[in-house]
Write a structure and sequence with these properties.
This protein is α+β, with helices and mostly antiparallel strands. About 50% of the residues lie in helices and about 15% in strands. It has a four-stranded mixed sheet with strand order 1-4-2-3, with helices on both faces. β2, α3 and β3 form a beta-alpha-beta unit.
């Protein structure tokens, strides 16, 4: 993900945080997924293996899309935390906007594709 797309994604998540359209942290993302409220998850690529092992299997089991986002520190700063491993989007329209942004973004050195959206 290029820096411009990353900045836009972080702004969208920040707006979502202000509007209570996102949940922050591994446990809240897991809870929202279990309740069927989660539309999309943004995962920090530098999150600890322990954190990833808690959330990724649940997201896969529930067939919830995951996006590899910016670092845990950048992700956390966007939502008012020091750092966070995961941010979950619970609003359908915001999730569509985030997916569209990521899918349209050029991958460094390649044409635009959706290889980062799982």
């Amino acid at each position: 993900m290029d820096s411009a797309t990353s900045a836009k994604l972080l702004r969208l998540l920040g707006v979502g945080m202000n509007g209570r359209l996102v949940v922050v942290g591994v446990q809240l993302v897991r809870d929202a997924a279990q309740r069927g409220k989660l539309q999309l998850a943004v995962i920090a690529p530098d999150a600890s293996r322990h954190s990833l092992d808690k959330v990724v299997p649940m997201l896969r089991a529930k067939h919830i899309r995951m996006i590899e986002g910016p670092s845990a520190a950048e992700l956390g700063a966007a939502v008012g935390r020091e750092s966070t491993a995961a941010v979950g989007v619970v609003d359908l329209q915001l999730a569509r906007g985030v997916r569209a942004l990521v899918e349209a973004a050029p991958v460094e050195g390649q044409a635009a594709d959706s290889s980062r959206v799982r």
